[in-house]
Amino acid sequence: MSLDLERFRVGALPSLYYIPEAIGAEEEQRLLREIHASKQAWKVVSGRRLQNLGGIVHKKGLVAAPLPSWLQPLLARLAGETGIWGGEPGAPLLPNHVLINAYQPGEGIMPHTDGPLYHPAVAILSLGNPAVVRFARKRTEDAATAAAEEAATAAVPAEGAPPHHQLAGQLVASVACMPRSLLIFRDEAYSGCLHGILEAQVESIDGSVVNAAAAGLVVGQGLLRSSERISLTVRRVLHTYSLGIRL
Asked: What is the topology classification, in CATH, of domain 5-241?
């Protein structure tokens, strides 16, 4: 069964969607058990732990490896319901790469873009605890230099004040990703914006949060990140190669 994604579009930024309760509590627990029991190695990247499933991504594409069997039904369902990775009705193209990030309270990820190696569509499934993903327009080189100089001379926030966001002045949307929800972004939101998560134990639900009502939140409240959050970032690498490729 396919979803009408337009029912779930949030904010004015095109092609940004939030689906609450995309999976049930039982499936969430099953996925968490599989992830924690997996023998897949964890890497530490900028403080957070990361698992790389589906192979190695390099500048020419994906050197593919089999995805875990416990994950494949979820990926097939996401492809069939959303169609965001292309294909034909009834025969959608499947994602072939998944990053599993484990965020402890206060951990985040710097603003970034996923780049041209992937089909310009991402689905992020949140498990266990919430976080706020913030989107901002890319800056020109001159604007980025000016922003860096401004940040370098900015006053240090008072103790207890919310952290200064790296994307202050650029934000076009923020999405509160509650447990079991699915965030989808593609096209302009994918290629024209950076996205990141603040290093904060309490997220500020400010006016940029475009799905506050859908997430059961109100602007002005704080959203506590009290324990580990696991996210599954699901994508399709455009080109795949055999292990015979020279890296």
From this structure: Jelly Rolls (2.60.120)
